[in-house]
Specification:
mainly alpha; two-stranded antiparallel ribbon; about 5% strand
């Protein structure tokens, strides 16, 4: 959405709050650095003073806080940058609306941090499963079916050209290997035309010797499971954001993940289909 098309009100408010969090973290860094400098100057001016030990301890504490503020600022910057990149990639005519707010509370005995950590573990498991599903091999029978289709297609393409005159008959296979750097007859296609059953038998023997995949899914099964995982991830990330927002309302800051879906962070619904039709 290169022209910065208007977001719904709730999403606009969330972006303002995220920008405020980034600015607040920067302000805390600056004020902490300034205070450390002031205390260090006190020691330099009076290295034998009565409060030197206490001041040094305070400086050590402030340095730890400076690192915490720096980490939070970096996290806020990464999240806001990810959201900006996402919005810039949306089509200008995308239909945007506020999602229905999800009310989620920590389970009994859980803090907000515990609840977010639990959801993030579930997200991690789903992401790992997503990668596993994406790498899943085909079931052996589907491999055989695709090989049969390939042999039939190649055989049809390799059908020879036959010319007959009064004196002679000429047969030529005018099919060439598309991947070769120079014209080379497509031997596999010619074999598929001449000996389809024999070729299928030999390839079937090679299939039997292939290593079996850890997970085998048909193309339809893979597509269905990936859709399910996508929906589950969105639900979990929506819950994660609801918990983080509730914690913020109570004054507790929990860093967001830069890899979280911007739609979940902004509580945003994007209708690309209507945008395409518009």
């Amino acid at each position: 959405m290169a022209d910065g098309s208007k977001l719904p009100k709730a999403a606009q408010l969330k972006i303002l709050r995220l920008e405020d969090a980034e600015q607040q973290a920067q302000t805390l860094i600056s004020s902490t650095v300034r205070r450390i400098g002031e205390l260090e100057r006190i020691i330099m001016n009076n290295p034998e003073g009565d409060r030197v030990d206490a001041i040094r301890e305070e400086i050590a504490l402030l340095r730890e806080r400076r690192e915490e503020h720096t980490d939070r600022h970096r996290s806020c910057c990464d999240v806001n940058a990810a959201i900006r990149r996402y919005l810039e990639m949306l089509p200008a005519n995308a239909i945007l609306s506020d999602a229905k707010r999800t009310k989620v509370r920590p389970k009994a005995g859980e803090s907000f941090v515990d609840a977010v950590d639990r959801i993030r573990r579930d997200i991690g498991k789903l992401v790992a499963e997503k990668f596993q599903v994406q790498r899943a091999g085909l079931p052996i029978e589907e491999v055989r079916s695709k090989v049969r289709d390939w042999i039939m297609q190649r055989a049809e393409k390799a059908r020879p050209r036959i010319t007959a005159t009064d004196n002679e008959v000429a047969i030529s296979f005018d099919i060439y290997d598309e991947k070769a750097s120079m014209p080379v007859p497509d031997i596999a296609a010619i074999m598929a035309f001449l000996y389809p059953e024999r070729l299928m038998k030999r390839i079937d023997e090679a299939i039997e010797q292939m290593p079996k995949p850890a997970l085998a899914l048909s193309a339809e099964q893979k597509a269905n499971r990936l859709r399910e995982i996508k929906d589950l991830l969105h639900d979990l990330e929506t819950e994660e954001e609801a918990l983080i927002s509730s914690a913020e309302e109570q004054g507790q800051m929990i860093d967001r993940r830069p890899t979280a879906d911007p739609k979940a962070i902004l509580c945003l619904v994007v209708d690309r289909n209507r945008a395409t039709a518009a």
